[in-house]
Amino acid sequence: MSTTRPTRRRPAGRAVLITGATRGIGAEIARAFARAGERLALTGRDPEALDRIANACRELGGEVVFAATYDLAQRDQVAALARDVRERLGGVDVLINNAGVGSRVDLRSVMEFDPAFWDTTLALNLTAPFLLCRALVPDMVRARYGRVINVASINGRVPSPHSAAYVTSKHGLIGFTRVLALEVAEHGVTVNALCPGPVDVGDDRRIAFDAQRSGRTVAELEAAATPMGGRLAPADIAPLALFLASDGASSLTGQAINVDRGLVMS
């Protein structure tokens, strides 16, 4: 006799929270879930960009329940977001922790690293996902259904220089993903991490820094960025997020999946 516990099937018109939805990977994930007809809550730090992506999602068929700005590096703002989501949507079925700050903002060696930037990076990239999961995953457990998708990085697996806070935060996010996945596995909730490789988000500060440091041209580094050549586009990441939220991925949990054009094969 089977001892497998029944889990709730995917609800129609799921409530999906996407943080960092105003640009890059987050915006493409928002568009993908809008095309799937989901009910969306979108956050970001740029009000005008947030309005644009919210309108784009509505045009694609998604129901944007609300779109509001929060500074997720601040714990009270994370708490406010969780409260607002529960009030407006009654909780979420899919939580996508995408908001974050990259290394390109302040590229320095460990010996020269700015402690304030360290604190901000870990607060946004690691603590905010923890706090949102702590607030919202209990509703998933009670419903016996939920999907948590944390946007990590291949730098959660391998280091790169001059990016200590980013690398540390993404290693931590993968570890957190696996712990939470174990803790909620029996309750019909899956928790996974996406690990993008180098993504072209229209900001070349990192590749320009590496070109100057290595004595190579930006074009040379761009061409050799991955074994398949070049960097990824944000749209390359969204299909995997959609799959991880699907019924087809119901047995997939605790995984950190690389999307990197062959750069890291482990």
Provide a quick synopsis of the model.
The protein has helices spanning 24-35, 47-59, 75-89, 115-143, 164-184, 205-214, 218-223, 238-244, and strands spanning 15-18, 39-44, 63-69, 94-97, 146-151, 189-196, 256-259.
Task: Write up this protein.
With 266 residues, the protein is an alpha/beta fold. It folds into 2 domains: 15-197 and 234-259, NAD(P)-binding Rossmann-like Domain (Rossmann fold, 3-Layer(aba) Sandwich), CATH 3.40.50.720; 202-231, no CATH class. 42% of the residues lie in helices and 15% in strands. The protein is built from 8 helices and 7 strands, in the order E-H-E-H-E-H-E-H-E-H-E-H-H-H-E. The chain has helices at 24-35, 47-59, 75-89, 115-143, 164-184, 205-214, 218-223, 238-244, and strands spanning 15-18, 39-44, 63-69, 94-97, 146-151, 189-196, 256-259. It has a 7-stranded parallel sheet with strand order 3-2-1-4-5-6-7, with helices on both faces. Helix 1 packs parallel to helix 2 and helix 4 runs parallel beside helix 5. The longest helix has 29 residues, at 115-143. The chain starts with 14 loop residues before the first strand and ends in a 7-residue tail after the last strand.
N- to C-terminal distance: 38 Å
Structural class, from secondary structure content?
A: alpha/beta
As a percent range, the share of strand residues is: 5-15%
Shape: globular
Overall pLDDT confidence: 93
Main β-sheet, in a few words? 7 strands, parallel
CATH architectural name of the largest domain = 3-Layer(aba) Sandwich
Over all CA atoms, what is the radius of gyration? 18 Å
CATH domain class of the largest domain: Alpha Beta
Count up the domains. Answer: 2
Uncertain stretches: none
The CATH H-level superfamily of the largest domain is NAD(P)-binding Rossmann-like Domain
Q: What is the count of DSSP helices, taking H or I runs of 4+ residues?
A: 8
Strand order of the largest sheet: 3-2-1-4-5-6-7
